[in-house]
Automatic annotation (TrEMBL):
Residue span(s) of domain Phosphatidic acid phosphatase type 2/haloperoxidase: 105-214
The organism of origin for this protein: Geodermatophilus obscurus
Domain of life from the UniProt record: Bacteria
UniProt region (Disordered), positions on chain: 1-26
Chief localisation class: membrane
Protein name: Undecaprenyl-diphosphatase
Transmembrane segment boundaries: 33-53, 73-96, 108-126, 146-169, 176-193, 199-218, 497-522, 534-557, 610-631, 643-666
Amino acid sequence: MTSGAVSTTDPDLRTPRLRRPGPRPVQRHPVDLVRVALGLAVLGLGLLVAQRGRLPVLERDVFQLVNDLPASVFPVVWLVMQLGNVVAVPAVAAVAALTRRFRMARDILVAGVLAYVASDLVKSVVQRERPVGLVVEVNSPEGPVAGLGFVSGHSAVAAALAAAAVPYLSRRGRRWAWTLAWTMALARIYVGAHLPLDVIGGLAVGWAIGSLVHWAFGVPRREVAAARVGQLLDRFGLPVRDLRAAAVRARSSHPFEAIDERGRRLYVKFLEPDRSERDWLYRLWRLLAVRDVKDADAVAPLGQQAEHEAVAAMIARERGVYAPRVLLARGSERGALVVQEYVVGTALDDLPPGELTPALLARVWQQVALLRAARVAHHDLVAASVLVDGDGQPWVVDFGNAQNGADEDALAGDVAELMASLVLRVDPELVVGSAVDVLGPDAVAAALPSLTPMSLSSATRAGIRDDRTRLGLLRRAVRRRLDLPDPDRPEFGPPGIAARLAVAAGAGLVLVGVPLLAGATAFAGSVERGGWRWLGAALALAVLARAARAAGALLTVERRLALGRTYGATMVADGASLLHGDEGWRRSAARFLERAGVLPEDARRAVDRFVAGAIVAAVLVGVATLVLALVEGLLSGWRTPEALVPAVALGLGAWALVLTGQWLAGRADTGPQVRRQVGRVLRSGLTAPRRARWLPGAQLGWTAMGVALE
């Protein structure tokens, strides 16, 4: 499309959709649920440590360090401490209501009340004393404080107020809110009312509750006045007229359109300084869940982000992609602008289904092929990011998340995103066929791992939720076109109720019988003394061990796999091994890799590599444990346990039951063949040249960590 002068009466100008009077639309960010989970995790760890009548040395030292501060700071401390009082909840909510921030007032009121109630509930469960009951000497400017300590109600209320208020505040206001919350928490230690673990637990409770309130109610999207954008344009040397909000859907920016002095119609994009992609917790969650943060430059200064977007768009345009010309890219931390020529066209997702013809789809994929040749990953290549002009030519727009010099995984993610977005309105066979014809089978096969909801953009996920069958149909269409085996094909027949009962009996015998060997009374007494804390610690170690093993499994294939999905796959594979033995574990693990786009033969080799790495890791951990035991002299006084014979009998009985269940389930005896395959992998890995060894230190390290934690 070539630029030209356009008047404000041009019939091609689209009139922006006027917003109806009423409250602003709200947004719900999934990362708020991650905050809730983290807050509960911190609280759970605190429950393991905060035992009644006991005080860790480190916690005592930190308490004394803060509690021994001079008395001159008490007036300031007292003033800040009132922010955690339950009376502060309606007071702060009233201030928000007086400034006409009614949603903010509602969130503050709900979060503050819930935090106060939750903190009292936790106190009644934990029953931990205040510092005066645990510490020898306590400085109490307000006098001794009695009652229960864990968690701090003041800290919970202050954190809930801060968490509830921050989406409505500026960046400076958010910093002040959390500074006051943490200062209030330290103040409770200073006055001798709480121990450090009490206030940390309270902050975690308040943070989790405030985040949960935002997930339940949502937060309104920030608005940017056109006058502010006009001032920035004048400052950067591009005066415009008729500046108004554009009728364009945008999640992390504010779109406007205008006319410049030469009569050109412009698309003005104001970059949001507080978009969710800049949240470090969101980025960490994306990295762990799908190993892709979408926008790698979101934490860069806004001016640099604008320049990066402009560079990506210009590179794509220079390499033949139909992308709008960039006229300005500039900004600061308070706001940045990207100005381009306006493309008059219709987004692919707004076209009638009859206009999405094979010829048009072929032209769309040709633009994608040019992007791939330029090594530009769009990172948000949904159907709405492709406009079709009056001549039927597709244009690629919105390079805000783009990456130059992208790797194969990032380029494959674009293919997956566009296919998933198109399949919501187009037959899957047509989408896959047009992509394969233009890009080739290898490019489409590489997109298979990203055809999962978590790997896709929020806009595509929203469409998939409306019709959950479309993504599955797309994956099956890809496999049919590429002649890949169906990962859901049956490998074993139904095991039958008898097999399930036998395996369940064997597992139950171990879970119930081993504690009973020590005596039911002794076992119950140990649990009562430990307050179930040792069970929680064991659970935490088991979770960490699984995560380490999953991290090691990621390094056995070249495809980018998500840590969360791999974690779940290892648990499913362990469950399959109960009914079908080692072969069940291997086939379950291989099927997971096949669903991620790994070819069957490559999946089997990856499983062999993981098993071989686990063997080496187990040997290393065993040898290290034995050496440490010898050095510490722990083996010199070893004696045969009194319950050795019953324990062996119990183990043999459970083993017999599980083997019977596997025999009833029709277990295939492939043990010798599997052992030969693993042996070959071990020999090749240990004898290969150093650079060609598939067993890198990272895989071995993660696997060894998992074995050690287990």
